[in-house]
Amino acid sequence: MKDIGFVTSGDGAQLQCYRDFEHYLDEEIYLRHLDRVDLSQFKSIVIPDFSNQALLQAHARQINDYLAGGGFLIVFEPNRMDEWLDVVQVQWFSRETEDWKWWMRAGGRMEAYQPEPRHPMAQAIPLADMCWHFFGAFRFPDDATPILNLDNDEGCLIYDQPVTGGGRLIASTIDPHTHHGRRFMPATTRFLNGFYPWLKAEVQNRG
């Protein structure tokens, strides 16, 4: 069984990310040809930010079946997963980053924090490496573990949720692949430098 499948729409930033982190990844999966791939051979599937929405909708049943069948799915926004994931209810709502240029200001910060006790992903990736901006937020599912929350807990920016049947969803409203692939926003590179080693170890440790 393979550890990590990386889904790409053919976007240049996504392709660059695959090249940069391919020593952690087992296979590049072209979203347009997803129906030719047996997703059950992967312990985890990553859908990077800004994937093709029409193709995600077209292959939604296959992705949902993977999750319902015990797969580990990680989805980055803005992919509007609330519109095509139906195995779990994804409660997304529109919420703007208060100051998109906070990182250019002395002492600036994005309005988010890592809850305590910290999720293992948050132990591998410090708060500073999770913050640049976000695309909306989630209502927090009762059975999920928060990873990154808005300051007032109005919403969650990353959470980890178990799924009936043994599946697992990590849902995120941040877009590290787009920025890293285009070499803009250093925090996104640091995020992925922590994320992919963590994910590789996570799937290997859980068998």
Features:
two-stranded antiparallel ribbon; 10 strands; eight-stranded mixed beta sheet; globular; alpha/beta
The low-pLDDT segments are none
CATH class: Alpha Beta
Beta fraction = 15-25%
Structural class: alpha/beta
Q: What is the number of beta strands?
A: 10
Count of runs of 4 or more consecutive helical residues: 6
Number of separate domains: 1
Identify the strand order in the major beta sheet. Answer: 2-1-3-4-10-9-8-6
Name the overall outline: globular
Order of helices and strands: EHEEHHEEEHEEEEHH
Structural commentary:
This protein is of the alpha/beta class. The protein has a single domain, classed as Rossmann fold, CATH 3.40.50. Helix content is 27%, strand content 23%. The chain is built from six helices and ten strands. The protein has an eight-stranded mixed sheet with strand order 2-1-3-4-10-9-8-6. A two-stranded antiparallel sheet has the order 5-7. The chain is globular, with a radius of gyration of 16 Å. The protein starts with a strand and ends with a helix. The mean pLDDT is 96.
